[in-house]
């Protein structure tokens, strides 16, 4: 993702960024699959909601090329917060309103 974020301001096109895009998508899909395999309930927890918000921002960037860089920067910000939030926020379930204690 860093290659994509670095290339966009300099006008890098899809052909130039194809490898970075492929690696970003494949690694993201693998991490999502691992989390879903553990427990799909993570999608309603803080970490899952951050992931869904990040995917939404990435999708908006794809649909709105003029706003791609700001959307991708916002997605990176959300991902950084989601990855480093305290355990109680990461495992807070929006479905039950409680912190799930048995999550890793």
Outline the structure in words:
With 104 residues, the protein is mainly alpha-helical. The chain has one domain (2-90). Helix content is 67%, strand content 0%. It has helices at residues 2-7, 14-38, 46-63, 68-84, 87-90. The longest helix is centred in the first third of the chain and has 25 residues, at 14-38. The model has no long low-confidence stretch (mean pLDDT 91).
Strand content: under 5%
> Secondary-structure element order, as H and E?
HHHHH
Count of beta strands: 0
Q: Gyration radius, to the nearest Å?
A: 15 Å
Major pleated sheet: none
Overall form:
elongated
How many domains make up the coordinates?
Answer: 1
Structural class: mainly alpha
Uncertain segments: none
Helix amount, in percent?
55-70%
Count of helical regions: 5
Question: Can I get a quick summary?
Answer:
The chain has 104 residues and is mostly helical.
Topology:
Layout: H1 2-7, H2 14-38, H3 46-63, H4 68-84, H5 87-90
Keywords:
single chain, about 100 residues, 5 helices, about 0% strand, elongated, mainly alpha
């Amino acid at each position: 993702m860093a290659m994509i974020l670095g290339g966009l301001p300099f006008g890098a096109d899809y052909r130039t960024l194809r490898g970075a895009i492929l690696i970003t998508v494949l690694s993201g899909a693998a991490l999502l699959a691992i989390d879903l395999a553990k427990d799909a309930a993570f999608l309603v927890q803080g970490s899952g909601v951050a992931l869904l918000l990040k995917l939404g921002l990435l999708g908006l960037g794809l649909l709105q090329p003029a706003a791609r860089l700001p959307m991708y920067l916002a997605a990176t910000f959300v991902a950084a917060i989601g990855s480093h939030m305290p355990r109680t926020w990461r495992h807070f379930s929006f479905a039950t309103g409680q912190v799930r204690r048995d999550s890793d």
